[in-house]
Design a protein that fits this description.
Blueprint lengths: L8 H20 L1 H11 L9 H21 L19 H28 L8 E5 L2 E5 L9 H7 L35 H20 L1 H7 L4 H19 L8 H13 L3 H29 L5 H21 L7 H25 L13 E5 L6 E3 L9 H7 L10 E4 L8 H4 L4 E8 L29 E8 L6 E8 L14 H20 L4 E6 L3 H5 L9
Antiparallel strand pairs: 1-2, 1-9, 3-4, 3-5, 6-8, 6-9, 7-8
Length: 543
């Protein structure tokens, strides 16, 4: 066995350049953006292409760091670090783990404080609006950590290309991405600065630890890929997802294993010693997720299982290549490829791939005028076009639309009354007053403003019912219905990309309707079941 591991500098430079070129390409080409997101999204999810850009830019940076190290003379960097706690070697990995642990812990505390401050049930998803800007929070997927992005962007406000959020004294919102700016008044300054600092240090430590990881595992491409993917997953969840998001547990376990082991043989020993405990921890996490989530395991379990299978396959075919038979490795490959392949096939048929497929001739396209607040049928003008072309024609983002509704299989007019999809949309509305100071903490706090009793513009919606919450101040439960049967419903008949897009369009328009009634900052919480509703309305006692 050679003492010096192979260092493919040219290959690494090529990988770094390709990732950067792809990152630039998805900013100028919608088709490339959708294809790249469709390929990366099952393993590195986000609503927009922000996570795709983070993964590509992070991969490019890591590849360039490794390429620069590989370009040195073979003796310039020892194969195995002797000073285990030096910052340029073994110790940087432990600093990375420490930064990630504290960042996720502080983010989780900030989330609990935010929910308690606004008196929000932890069981529900909340869309927090301030003006036209919004973000999303739930116990299992938090965006509170995104305030770190707004905090870091604050010193860059003087640079071109940044636009304000419309929130007084708030940091900028970069492009069309959610940077958590609306949550700035609701997260303590010390917490968001701590998260921002730890996130930045985590990125630095992840790069500093790279040469040591490469040498310990003899520059094996699978080991480097596992480390890079696990590290970027853990860094991403600091700002997008939080402590309980489903990609963090398997990523954190693999990252810890790679950082603490001295070499491949030591990694195998650690996996054997603590593998059962790690598996039990993952099972316990899945059980907790199912108990907390309104949808049980839901779609998130598919992502959790996909990422876990990918990590397990990588470890099995690299670290345990001498311990398992070839038949076992081929079986693992077949299972992993089959499971991920089914996910990609589903995305192509009913997920993001729908954006690139021409709509049938009878598809219905409705465009909402942001000024007149009216809905206009544009089906004839765009017949046979792809959803991507339709969204762009009317100035909408195909991944985060705000005003274009697409129904690919409309219900025939003669049967629409009996078989149309559900058109009611119920949600709890928590009104925020006083620049983020919770109304329930002020003794002179008024009740919900009179606008809550007003009827929204009937050209789009009809208010079918509104009940004030006796349990929570400044909170009411609403039921809206689309005013015209020609407008696609809130939920499509099938759970697909266009159905999800329609839901978010209606959510944006409901928020705009409420703003038209004089509300500026509020949290919308969709209510899907009577249990959701009863969190706000006390159940009536039987006589």
């Amino acid at each position: 066995m050679n003492d010096i591991a192979p260092r493919p500098a040219a290959t690494l430079w090529a990988i770094g350049g390709s990732c950067l070129a792809l990152a630039l390409g998805i900013r100028v080409s919608d088709h490339l953006r959708i294809v790249a997101k469709g390929f990366i999204d099952p393993l590195f999810h986000s609503t927009s292409d922000g996570a795709t850009l983070f993964l590509l830019c992070g991969s490019a940076t890591m590849a360039c760091v490794l390429a620069s190290v590989a370009s040195r003379a073979p003796g310039a960097l020892p194969l195995r670090q002797t000073r285990r706690w030096s910052l340029d070697g073994y110790g940087a990995g432990f600093l990375l783990l420490g930064a990630l642990a504290f960042a996720h812990g502080i983010g989780f505390i900030a989330l609990l404080e935010y929910q308690d401050m606004l008196d929000l049930p932890w069981q529900l998803s909340g869309y927090h609006w301030s003006g036209e800007v919004n973000t999303y929070n739930t116990l299992l997927h938090s965006h509170v950590g995104k305030t770190a992005l707004s905090t870091l962007a604050q010193p860059l406000q003087w640079l071109g290309g940044l636009r304000g959020t419309g929130i007084p004294n708030a940091p900028v919102n970069v492009g069309a991405y959610d940077t958590g700016a609306v949550l700035i008044p609701h997260v303590a300054t010390v917490e968001r600065w701590a998260i921002a600092l730890l996130f930045s240090l985590g990125c630095v430590f992840a790069l500093v630890a790279l040469p040591s990881i490469a040498d310990r595992y003899r520059w094996h491409p699978v080991a480097l890929a596992l480390y890079g993917f696990a590290a970027m997953n853990c860094l991403k969840t600091v700002v997008d997802g939080g402590l309980l998001t489903y990609r963090l547990p398997p990523s954190a376990l693999v990252l810890t294993l790679l950082v603490t082991a001295r070499d491949r043989e030591d990694l195998v020993l650690l996996a054997r010693r603590y593998g059962l405990a790690a598996l039990c921890a993952l099972v316990a996490y899945v059980a907790a997720w199912a108990a907390i989530s309104q949808d049980g395991l839901g779609a998130a379990f598919s992502g959790f299982l996909g990422v876990s299978l990918l990590y397990a396959f990588g470890l099995l075919c690299w670290a345990f290549r001498n311990e398992v038979r070839a038949a076992v490795r081929w079986t693992a490959l077949a299972v992993t490829a089959g499971y991920l392949g089914l996910g990609y096939l589903q995305d192509a048929s009913s997920g993001i791939g729908l954006l690139l497929r021409a709509l049938p001739d009878d598809a219905r396209v409705v465009v909402i005028d942001p000024v007149e607040r009216g809905a206009h049928d544009a089906s004839a003008a765009v017949r046979g076009q792809t959803p991507l072309a339709i969204y762009r024609r009317f100035g909408d983002d195909p991944m985060k639309p705000k005003r274009v509704l697409i129904d690919p299989r409309p219900v025939p007019l003669q049967t629409r009354g009996a078989t149309a999809p559900e058109r009611d949309f119920a949600f709890a509305l928590r009104v925020i007053e006083g620049g983020g100071e919770p109304a329930r903490d002020r003794p002179d706090a008024p009740g919900p403003p009179a606008a809550l009793d007003a009827k929204p513009t009937p050209s789009i919606y009809q208010l079918w019912g509104a009940t004030r919450s006796a349990n929570r101040i400044n909170t009411a439960v609403f039921v809206f219905r689309t005013a015209s049967s020609e407008i696609p419903g809130f939920y499509a008949a099938d759970s697909n990309q266009l159905g999800h897009n329609n839901f978010y369009v209606h959510l944006h328009q409901v928020a705009a309707t409420l703003r038209a009634q004089g509300l500026e900052e509020f949290v919308l919480m969709p209510l899907h079941t009577t249990r959701d509703r009863d969190l706000f309305i006390a159940a009536r006692s039987r006589p």
